[in-house]
Amino acid sequence: MTDMPDLATASVPPAKAPTAWRGWLGSLAGRRTLLAVLGIAALAVLLAVPATASSRYIVYLGTLLALHGVLAVSLNIIMGFAGQFALAHAAFYGLGAYTSAILIRDFDLSFWASLPPTAAAAALLAAAIGYPSLRFTGGIHFALITFAFGELIRLVTANWHDLTGGPQGMQLGFSPEPLLGIDFGSTRGIYALAAGLLVISLAIAAAIRFSRFGRSLVAIREDEVLASSLGINVTANKMAAFVITSVLAALAGTIYGPFVGFISPEMMSASDSISVVGMLIVGGLGTLAGPIFGTLIFMGLPELLRVAKLYRLVILGLIIIAVVLFAPKGVAGVIDRLIRPKRGGAR
Amino acid sequence: MLRLEGIGHRFGGLEVLRRIDTSVAAGELVGLIGPNGAGKTTLFNIISGFVRPATGRVFFEGRDVTGWKPNVLAALGLVRTFQGARVFPNLTVKESLAIARRPVKGRQGDAAARVIATAQQLFDLDAHAGEEAGSLPSGLMRVLGIAMALSTGAHVLLLDEPAAGLSGEEMEHLQEVIRQLHQAGTTIVVVDHNLHFLMGLVTRAIVLDSGMLIADGPPEAVTADPRVVEAYLGAADLADG
User: Fold this and answer.
1) DSSP B14
2) What sequence ranges are listed for the domain ABC transporter (chain B) (predicted)?
3) Tens place of pLDDT for every residue, chain A, 347 residues?
4) Contact A123, A247 (CB under 8 A)
């Protein structure tokens, strides 16, 4: 026992002075802070510009960005943190929009009262498709099942005319009722709702990231077998992440309905699900700020360039290829690398 | 603590384990030895819940845990490590240990905390706290794997070839950590090819050959057993050649 410090000193590699790692850790914390500050700045731009702008177009764009921000932030929980490729995100978005709209139309619920049953429906469906597919290691089953489920939901929606109006979609005549003295029915009110959900989603993602649950998800992403050997219930953690991811997407969908006033099965297409995956890859998978960067670039840039939806996918395809080739950790990774202190041998 | 009854397993037509009956008492430090392909790792996989045995039962602390999931067994305090350097490559040493750490109450928890502190000191893990596990030297990666298993507060630890690829000095440090762990009350089963590493360490050796338990006893007696000598030397030639 007494000679242990000697042993410890003997095993110190000569190249690493004890103070070196403290400086390294310190700058690590600094980098994280800087990245967080930039992320918050991006979020502030996203939130503040539409809130103060007089142009209806800017408010419209802000709402669209906020809703897609919710999609990116929520998908990041299952895909970025837990490393599971989910391809049903647009389907849950559409499911939320349709479920809420149908409950309001057929059961005379208020917009607010339609939210809990919509969230519950999304949670149940996510658990039902997550359980059989997330038990397997590797993620290929989950990717395939979510893809098939997304298409199934879209086809059912397109063909169940009596309930959904079929491929022609549904005209929606409702808007969220005033709550706590705030008029959520106006364009600006809907924007506030979308922005609020984005902030809540980010808060949930951040709370998860720094909790034991979030650490377990990251361990699962890194090595499922090792994670389970350390006592982590891999399937249960993945399922919980997928349920949270899907419920947030469905809630974003409930806002999309009254925002646009029209919903159709097209909003559930697989290419839209893949677009959200693209936002995450461009922004930086698994980081907190990444989904915000990704949304701004993916949704904001084409709008600002005033190019129609037709070209958006082309431009975004090119951006994704460039990011995968030159910045595999996304925009968040690039910023991280730019502000990282020079250090021999560091990646 | 740990009891195996008639454990048998096969991969395809190959019988890798045949009717293994043995038990490990609380606080024992046992070496599991045998030539390549003897079935040691398969037995570990069965005990830790990664493989369900074709026949036989596994009992842990009096309970039949045959076929229980690895995470459930780990939560009960039965944790294994893996051959090679299995770590979370993109996470730092600090993050890896935080993931593994579980609140363990009472004396067991205090003892585990002391052993982890010792391991961190002996292997200088603290100095690498901010580094990614995947970029550590391989000796440290192995130690990190063991340190993570310890951090769960396990009271039964299955170590699969922990000393493979370690330098002489690192091996001595590892022996020191295992001894302290044992003194702190942890039950330990170690698989290793390196008889020199094991013999200075364990109080009992179990020998497997071709899926059968051929010897069990104090290390000196077991290594003198002609059947063990034959099994070991015969296979050592193959392994080296």
Assistant:
1) E
2) 2-235
3) 333 333 333 333 333 334 443 444 444 445 566 667 777 777 777 777 776 777 788 888 889 889 999 999 999 999 999 999 889 999 999 999 999 999 999 998 999 999 999 999 999 999 999 998 888 776 788 999 999 999 999 999 989 988 888 888 888 888 887 888 777 878 888 888 999 899 999 999 999 998 889 999 999 999 999 999 999 999 999 999 999 999 999 999 999 999 988 999 989 888 888 888 888 888 888 888 889 888 888 877 777 666 556 676 677 778 778 888 887 788 888 877 776 654 444 33
4) yes
Question: What's the CA gap between A86 and A238, in Å, rounded?
Answer: 11
Question: Rounded to a whole number, what is the distance in Å from the CA of B167 to chain A's nearest CA?
Answer: 11
Query: Cα(A205)–Cα(A214) distance, rounded to whole angstroms?
Result: 9
Q: Is A285 on the interface with B (CB under 8 A)?
A: no
Does A11 reach chain B within 8 Å, measured CB to CB?
yes
User: Domain range holding B104?
Assistant: 2-240
Give me the residue from B50, B88, B121 closest to A219, CB to CB: B88
Which positions in chain B touch A233 (Cβ < 8 Å)? Answer: 69, 71-72
Task: With beta carbons under 8 A apart, name residues in chain A contacting B132.
Answer: 347
ipTM summary value: 0.88
- What backbone phi and psi angles, to 5 degrees, belong to A254? -65, -30
Number of structural domains (chain B) is 1
pTM here is 0.84
The matching CATH number, chosen from 1.10.357, 1.10.1060, 1.10.3470, 3.30.200, for A37-339 is: 1.10.3470
What residues does each domain of chain A span?
A: 37-339
- Which member of B91, B129, B172 has the closest CB to residue A222? B91
User: What's phi and psi for A117, nearest 5 deg?
Assistant: -65, -30
Nearest C-alpha in B relative to A27 = B130
As a whole number of angstroms, the distance between CA A273 and CA A78 comes to 14
Q: Read off the CATH number of the domain in which B196 is found.
A: 3.40.50.300
User: What three-state secondary structure class fits B208?
Assistant: strand
The pair of three-digit structure tokens given for residue B130, joined into one six-digit string: 């901010």
Q: Please tell me the distance in Å from A292's CA to the nearest CA on chain B.
A: 23
Q: Which residue has the tokens 């063909």?
A: A159
What is the nearest CA distance from B98 to chain A, expressed in angstroms? 8
Inter-chain CB proximity A229 and B95 less than 8 Å? no
Interface contact flag, B123 A28, Cβ < 8 Å: no
Query: Which residues does residue B191 pair with via DSSP β-bridges, in sequence order?
Result: B32, B160
3 state SS of A184 = coil
